[in-house]
Amino acid sequence: LFDAGGAPAKAADARGPSPSPVFMPAAADLEVALAQKNLFVVYQPKIHCSTGRVSGLEALVRWQHPDHGLVTPDRFIPLAEGAGLIDGITLAVLNDALPWFAKWSSDYEELGELTLSINISARSLGRPELIDTIVALCERSGVSPSKLIFELTETAAMDEPVAALTLLTRLRVHGFMLSLDDFGTGYSSMLQLVRLPFSELKIDRSFVASAATSQESRAVIRCITDLGRSLGMKTTAEGVEDSATHTYLQEIGCDLAQGYLFSRPLTPMLLANWMDKHLE
Ligand code: C2E
Ligand code: CA
Ligand code: CA
Ligand code: CA
C-alpha cells in the first residue's frame, strides 16, 4: 500500500523539517493520504542491552503531506482513531513492514531471530475480524506470527479491559507476542494488568529520558525491570539517548533498549546502511 522506497531520506528523522504549525489535518486529508500512499513506515532498531546487538525493529508510521511536509503520528493517529481509519493504517503498516521484515530476516540471518514490533490501537480491540486479516498477511509474506510483537499502550489496555482480554488472547492463540507500551504512565491496577497476556513491558520514555539525572526515574526503571523479571516478561527501555543510561540498564538487567543512542527510526534504505555498519 505504501511507496516505501520513495520516502525522502530526510523524513526518516523524527525531528526533521516540521510541518507548518497551522496544519490541522481533517479525516478527509487522511483518507486522501491513505489512498495516495502518502503514508510510509520507518523502522527503529531494538537492541539487546547486554550485547548491543539488534534484536528486532519497531515500525513507526509517518505522513509525508504534499504541501505541509512531514506529519508525525501524534498528530494523526488520534484523528484516525476517531474517524474509523485506524485499522486501515494498521493494515497499511503491516503491508509495508512484512515484506521488508521477511527480507531483513534473511539478509541479517547472523543476528538470529529478529522480531517486528507493530503499534496497535485500542480502537481495533473490538474488531476480531482484524486478526484474520493480519494472519493472512503474515502467511502471504511468509512471516511467522511468533516474530510479531503487537504493542498496546497501557491506557488502551485498561480503557476496555474485557475487549482487550478477548482480542489479546486471540492474538496469543495465533502465536503473536504482545507488549505493554508506555508502561508506568497509566493509572491501572497492577492486578488487572498482569492478568493480560503480555510478554514484554516497555518502560516509558519519560522515565528513560531522565534516568541519567534523576534518582527517582532510575528507581522506577529498576522497579519495572524487576517486575518484568518476576513475571517472566521482557523489559524494554525506550528513548535511550545517552550511554550512561545504557550502562545503567545493563547493570540492572534490563533486556532490551531503543533510542537515538543506537538509531533513530529509519527508512528501509537507511536501515540497510545502518545494519551493514552494525554488522561490521
Ligand atoms: P511509541 O510507540 O511510544 O513510539 C516511540 C516514540 O519515541 C516514536 O515516536 C519514536 O520515534 C520516538 N523515539 C524513539 N527513540 C527516541 C529517543 O531516543 N528520543 C526521543 N526523543 N524519541 C525517541 P513517533 O514515531 O513520533 O511515534 C509517536 C507515537 O505514535 C508512538 O509512540 C505510537 O504510540 C504512535 N504510533 C506510531 N506509529 C504508529 C502506528 O503505525 N500505529 C499506531 N496505532 N500508532 C503509532
Ligand atoms: Ca510503541
Ligand atoms: Ca512507548
Ligand atoms: Ca508513546
Automatic annotation (TrEMBL):
Any one GO MF annotation of this record: cyclic-guanylate-specific phosphodiesterase activity
GO biological process: phosphorelay signal transduction system
Domain of life: Bacteria
Coiled coil stretches, renumbered: none
EAL domain: residues covered: 23-279
The keyword Phosphoprotein appears for this protein: yes
Name listed for the protein in its UniProt record: EAL domain-containing response regulator
Keyword annotations of the record: Phosphoprotein
